[in-house]
Specification:
With 62 residues, this protein is mainly beta. It is 10% helix and 40% strand. The protein has a domain of 43 residues.
């Protein structure tokens, strides 16, 4: 196989979490490539419970 270059783009997903803190519980959605990236974007001070991964809708390829 010829030398391969890493030019493939990674798909983004909508990650769904339950965000829990001392007084509230809410469902949040974060667009990111990986779960780790999504968790890094989550609100500070919340416990994040994974609830689902959905493909990002729209944004057709150019």
């Amino acid at each position: 196989m010829a030398g391969s270059q890493h030019t493939q783009t990674h798909p983004k997903f909508t990650w769904r979490f339950l965000a829990l803190d001392a007084s509230t519980c809410s469902v949040i959605h974060i667009n990111a490539t990986t779960e780790r990236e999504a968790r890094d974007q989550s609100p500070a001070g919340c416990v994040m419970v994974f609830a689902g991964r959905l493909p990002v809708q729209g944004g057709g390829h150019a």
